[in-house]
Amino acid sequence: MKIYNKYIAAIALSLVLASCKAPMATVIQDEVKNTIPENFSQNEQQDVNNNSGTTPWRQFFTDPNLVSLIETSLKNNQELMITLQEIEIAKSGIVAKKGRLSPSVRAGLGAGVSKAGRYTSEGAGDASTEIEPGKEMPDPLGNFEGGLMANWEIDIWKKLRTEKDAAVAHYLSTVEGKNFVLSNLIEEVADNYYELLALDNQLDIIQQYIKLQTRALEIAKIQKQAAAATELAVKKFEAELAKSKATEYTIRQEITEKENQINALCGRYPQPIVRTKESFMSIIPQTVYTGIPSQLLANRPDIKQAELELKAAKLDVEAARKEFYPSLEISATLGLEAFKPSYLVKLPESIATSLVGELAGPLINKSAIKANFQTADAKQIQALYEYDKTILNAYLDISNLMSKVKNIDQYYQLKSQETQALDQSIDIANQLFKNSRADYLEVLLNQRDALDAKMELIEAKEKQLSTVVDIYKSLGGGWK
Q: Which residues contact 387 (CB under 8 A, 6 or more apart)?
């Protein structure tokens, strides 16, 4: 018998050891993070001490109307509210994983009835048992019980701790995700606000242009009466005036849509957007300091989110690998049990206890565990690529925006000069037309060119402001 027991123990031990053979995870290395260039541009030395990404948005934006819109959006935006709930879900995941480290204790009550066959070992035993002298065992036999039951998986391989650490990393990534949503939301509100101001100014320009064309049409009609112009000139001016009025209604519709877009970001129904359009063209864009590229790793929430997701993915792989190892579970019960309720209070006869320890591991048909491990390993590699892509895109985004800031500034200066020259040419053309020294085509072309230049100048101002906002967000600003 002793030899037989030794064989059983040896076989059990070999089965447990066989279950411990787990595949190795893919070793990943982050190359992009370690190869970030020292500067965003090879031609410039970056300002290390001043990084606009660390500037709080309340200091970066000075327009009180814009600040008010941003505050409203931070309170009511539905996408932000959804993200906050994702944080709560991730927080609950930590609590759930942490709870598995402790024993689970349940309290329960039970009642039942059973009848064993007379010619079975259980039936024969019940028939020959006397609880009290002269009283036979009830038939059928009842069973009443109540007590505490505990189960505890001993974390001998630190699998449960690894799962908890993965949940913590995922939770922290959702917090950074919230910060990224904040940054994008603030940028979107600011961009739409500047676009709305640009549309307001374009509407003013087109209305001024309509007045100018109305006067030009009146002059053409007078000159026709004096035989100094033809009916063709009158019709051309009428057509140009009708075209400008149609453009006015197009801009009005764009203003309405832009207001509603801002209201949607603020999580509210359509209402007027309070703004001051008169000072739009005189707004001086904020000076943006880029700092050094490595600061992106600390400032940009999307990069920190991707880094934490990578950490969580690595921990998930480690936890999935430990599923191949045997687990040790301890079960214990303590309670009262009897075939009649009145016997439950008879102590210590009614006390029932048990203590069981079980060491078991997967041996055959481990395909599900292998599939989970392979999935976790693939997600780990995927998270690495996502992290590297986020860093690379951030660097390229800022590099493009830095170039755009310079070029849009030059573009704005040249458009200002063009607008001034065309304004002067309109006055000259109108004077020559009154004196019959220029035809109507010269007047029309000058007016069209001036209108286009002024519209483009307003668009350039809007792009100038939006580009500064974009680079501020790209440097990691807007969420603090």
A: 30, 32, 33, 303, 306, 307, 309, 310
Give yes or no for a contact between 206 and 246, defined as CB atoms under 8 angstroms apart. Answer: no
Q: Are 280 and 197 in contact (CB under 8 A)?
A: yes
Q: Cα separation of 400 and 392, whole Å? A: 12
pLDDT at 133 over 80: no
Q: Is the pLDDT of residue 401 over 80?
A: yes
Q: Are 212 and 425 in contact (CB under 8 A)?
A: no
- pLDDT single digits (tens) 288-303: 777 677 777 778 899 9
Spatial CB neighbours of 19, under 8 Å, sequence gap ≥ 6: 324, 325, 326, 361, 362, 363
**Contact (Cβ atoms closer than 8 angstroms) between residue 54 and residue 301:** no
What mean pLDDT, rounded, does the chain reach? 84
β-pairing, 135-136 vs 104-114, is unpaired
Would you state the structure tokens that stand for residue 1, as one six-digit string? 């018998």
| Residue 84 pLDDT greater than 70, yes or no | yes
- Three-state SS sequence of the chain: CHHHHHHHHHHHHHHHHHHCCCCCCCCCCCCCHHHCCCCCCCCCCCCCCCCHHHCCHHHHCCCHHHHHHHHHHHHHCHHHHHHHHHHHHHHHHHHHHHHCCCCEEEEEEEEEEECCCCCCHHHHHHHCCEEECCEECCCCEEEEEEEEEEEEEECCCCHHHHHHHHHHHHHHHHHHHHHHHHHHHHHHHHHHHHHHHHHHHHHHHHHHHHHHHHHHHHHHHHHHHCCCCCHHHHHHHHHHHHHHHHHHHHHHHHHHHHHHHHHHHCCCCCCCCCCCCCCHHHCCCCCCCCCCHHHHHHHCHHHHHHHHHHHHHHHHHHHHHHHHCCEEEEEEEEEEEECCHHHHHCCCCCEEEEEEEEEECCCCCCHHHHHHHHHHHHHHHHHHHHHHHHHHHHHHHHHHHHHHHHHHHHHHHHHHHHHHHHHHHHHHHHHHHHCCCCCHHHHHHHHHHHHHHHHHHHHHHHHHHHHHHHHHHHCCCCCC
* Average pLDDT score over residue span 18-22: 59
Q: Which tokens in the block code for residue 373?
A: 């491990």
- Cβ-defined contacts of 228-232 (< 8 Å, 24+): 228/436, 229/440, 232/440
Strands 104-114 and 141-154 turn out to be: antiparallel
